[in-house]
Design goal:
The chain has one helix and five strands; from the N terminus they run αβββββ. With about 110 residues, the protein is mainly beta. It has a domain of about 70 residues: NigD-like N-terminal OB domain (OB fold (Dihydrolipoamide Acetyltransferase, E2P), Beta Barrel), CATH 2.40.50.500. Strands 2-1-4-5-3 form a five-stranded mixed beta sheet. About 10% of the residues are buried.
Length: about 110
């Protein structure tokens, strides 16, 4: 049996008793957030189920984004829109109808 590795005492998180992430991890997370941003993407509103709507980008019709908020006037199957926002992550071992998406801007395509 192998001996357990000694625990490193690291402090400096935002709250007492928390561990601060190394600077390179913070930079990596910030870079990932920027990489997960979508800006001015043309797409189509799709009715997925009863009252669940998704955004289908023109660039990848196999992808569905589940918006956190969609104005009622845009809840129309087949409506063409331009949207921007933050792509979320699907938790491990969870099956979803689409990828979580935080909308920062959306409007009808003219």
């Amino acid at each position: 049996m192998l001996p357990a590795a000694p625990a490193a005492a690291v402090t400096g998180g935002d709250e007492p008793g928390t561990v601060a992430a190394p600077a390179h991890d913070k930079k990596k997370r910030k870079k990932q957030r920027r990489a997960n941003m979508i800006t001015d993407q043309k797409g189509t509103v799709r009715l997925v189920s009863d009252d669940v709507y998704a955004l289908e980008p023109d660039s990848d019709t196999g992808t569905r984004y589940l918006p956190d908020a969609l104005p009622d006037d845009l809840k129309q199957e087949g409506l063409r829109v331009v949207f921007s926002g933050q792509v979320g992550e699907i938790p491990p071992n969870v099956r979803m109808m689409g990828t979580p998406f935080t909308v920062t801007a959306i409007h009808k395509l003219e």
